[in-house]
Write a structure and sequence with these properties.
about 230 residues; alpha+beta; six-stranded antiparallel beta sheet; about 20% strand
Amino acid sequence: MNIPGDDIPGYRTIRVGALEAPVAALADLEAWRAREEFPDICFSGPVFGVARERGLGGWELHPYFGALAPQAARDSMGSHFRKLAHDAEQSSDLAGHAQCLRAAEALDRKALDEVRLLGTRYRVVRADRFVRSGPAGPEPPRPSDPDPGGPGRANEVPDPAAGFVIDPVTVTGMAEGILKLDLLDAIYPAGAVPPGIRGDCVEAARMHPGGVLLPPAFTVAELAGGR
């Protein structure tokens, strides 16, 4: 769904189009069915990770997106900078080695959420987790969900979010586009959370009105006492 007018920034549009890949079309159909069987959206708290700005546009996620606190993502960014320092040292780039080490050491001392290094911006980014639920309980995995790891070997599967490009203007299917609308309009109701948290939520919707859907993540739920 494109809002007419050249004055609408790309990050505030939701582009819906026909999905040519059969798997993508099937996934969008399953997402539509999930709206009927699991109509409730329950937020379960934020996760954090590291992204780098791409020269071609958008931001690319680093592996293992899912830290439960911002500092864990900052520590991950510092580890990445130390790896860059090692690579620069191996290639005899002494100036690059020194810059990368200084950036890593700065993260040891300060809670930095954005760092520019060697011409590239790195940022700690936030995502909200949510679960679809309905009369039958929380939604289980869908048939179209990738599941490459066999029993007991899930730890060998790469992080599906690694390399994901945050680009709000990417074309989506109809169900995914409607879900984006639902999520972008969602704000904690008054009284559900402390005023400071709700205020941050309102401000985030104003400052960052666009959004993308990351690859799904999975966990275990237990039925206890009817909940």
